[in-house]
Amino acid sequence: xxxxxxxxxxxxxxxxxxxxxxxxxxxxxxxxxxxxxxxxxxxxxxxxxxxxxxxxxxxxxxxxxxxxxxxxxxxxxxxxxxxxxxxxxxxxxxxxxxxxxxxxxxxxxxxxxxxxxxxxxxxxxxxxxxxxxxxxxxxxxxxxxxxxxxxxxxxxxxxxxxxxxxxxxxxxxxxxxxxxxxxxxxxxxxxxxxxxxxxxxxxxxxxxxxxxxxxxxxxxxxxxxxxxxxxxx
Length: 233
Description:
It holds the Pfam family PNP_UDP_1. The chain is 37% helix and 31% strand.
């Protein structure tokens, strides 16, 4: 089993790179892919860059070139659901695009033609990650993660997203693109997001202040997950 892990930013990637054993680096396209192990689990770790296109391209490379068996998108997000606090972690049950609108042609909000409106995450993989978090007393939530090429801080934008996706827990800029590529290739995936802000008018300040700790939080959950997988072997 080989896991591909996508992070958007250096702050989100750092803790995983530090934990990587027997590491090597392969430059492919415009990215450096870090290959190695954490708790004897085979990994390919990469910073995709921010946004849906970057995330989708990177997921496709992990699947096609590096032949990973599953893809995990780890990082930070803005909480827009009820009961979320900075530092809480959301594990996706599914992902959707909040900025796609082909409703004039009869599709659901967020749905692209020839694709489902939402991309279901792999339940077994999500269950294992949630269990590792529970074992380490991390506050977790499971639900819909929505994605768009937009840093969401305006309350009016948040209200519009919540109107279209009332069950959304958090908003970010990559997860649904990873979900679409995973769906297209029939590869298991899941998105993990630590809350760096709660999607309000203070989001810019909170993001800058908490991005490092949020990246560590989501990364540490993965390290704990890999440790659990080792103990089960």
